[in-house]
Every structure is written in C-alpha cells, then in structure tokens.
C-alpha cells in the first residue's frame, strides 16, 4: 500500500455495509490508517498479513485483497477481498484471487488459502468455486450482523 491509497482505504474501512464481511466494528480515523500504511513493512513474515491494492488496466483502484492470519508453520493464510461497488461483477475479483494464488504458491510457499464467507453471499461463493475453492465446514452463528448471528462457510483452496 502507498500513501496515495489512504482515501480509498478510509472509504472501505469506514463503509458500514462492509463491516459484516470483516473484523471491523469501529470507524478508523485517517490518522490511524495513515500510520498503518506508514508502519507496514509489507512483509507477511513480519506483519503477519499483507494487503494489496487491486488496480485495473487504467490504473484505477478497484479494490483491496489481503492475506491475514498467516501461519507459516501450517503454510496457510486467510484471504479477504473487497471490490468497490462500481467495479463489481467485471472479473476483477477472480483475476486478483488468481494472482494472489500464484504469489502464495510461488513466493510464500503456502499449502492453502481459505476464506470465511457468509452463507448468504452467493456471489462470493460462486466466484470462489469457479476458481477452484472447495467448501469446508459451516461455522454456526459465526457472523454477527444487523442484530443477529449468521452462519458462515469456510472455503479452501489447496495450492
């Protein structure tokens, strides 16, 4: 991430409609996000995560993809992705996940990437299946959203 990504990151992190697909539950200040960008070493072995900006051919930022909960012993990490509304359903998620998969396999030597997806999120579920993810466990009442608990599905990609 670059300092120029601050406004986009501020928008994504403070979009309450996305909080149900992330661990965010409080708004972030520009100052806190500025420090996050400045302090990140961009080394998954140091930070335990890596966050990458997704751009299209016109160098427009279309979203963010990250690996979190990196576990070098078990060679796995959790993937998260957000595509901004104006760019959804145009193939950017699939392309970004495929690039992240190549990076994870060839540079990080991971055995698997997994994602936790709300069982009602059919778009993400279908996208991940089309890339080769398989369905794992159903996590009962895993996501608290809109005053109620919802089930989530673990999706795994063995690479």
UniProtKB/TrEMBL annotation:
It comes from the Bacteria. Gene3D superfamilies: 3.40.630.30. Residues 1-159 form the N-acetyltransferase domain. GO terms for molecular function: acyltransferase activity, transferring groups other than amino-acyl groups. InterPro entries: Acyl_CoA_acyltransferase, GNAT_dom. PANTHER family: GNAT-FAMILY ACETYLTRANSFERASE, SPERMIDINE N(1)-ACETYLTRANSFERASE. This is Diamine N-acetyltransferase.
């Amino acid at each position: 991430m670059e300092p120029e990504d601050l406004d986009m990151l501020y928008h994504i992190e403070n979009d309450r409609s996305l909080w149900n697909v992330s661990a965010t539950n409080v708004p972030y200040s520009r100052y806190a996000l500025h420090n996050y960008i400045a302090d990140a070493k961009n080394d998954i072995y140091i930070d335990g995560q890596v966050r990458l900006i997704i751009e299209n051919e016109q160098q427009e930022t279309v979203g963010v993809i990250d690996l979190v909960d990196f576990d070098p012993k078990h060679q796995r990490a959790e993937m998260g992705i957000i595509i901004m509304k104006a760019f959804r359903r145009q193939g950017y998620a699939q392309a970004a996940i495929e690039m992240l998969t190549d990076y994870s396999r060839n540079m990080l030597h991971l055995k698997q990437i997994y994602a936790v997806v709300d069982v009602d999120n059919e778009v993400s579920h279908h996208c991940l299946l089309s890339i080769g993810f398989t369905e794992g466990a159903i996590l009962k009442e895993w996501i608290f959203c809109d005053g109620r608990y919802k089930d989530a599905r673990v999706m795994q990609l063995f690479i």
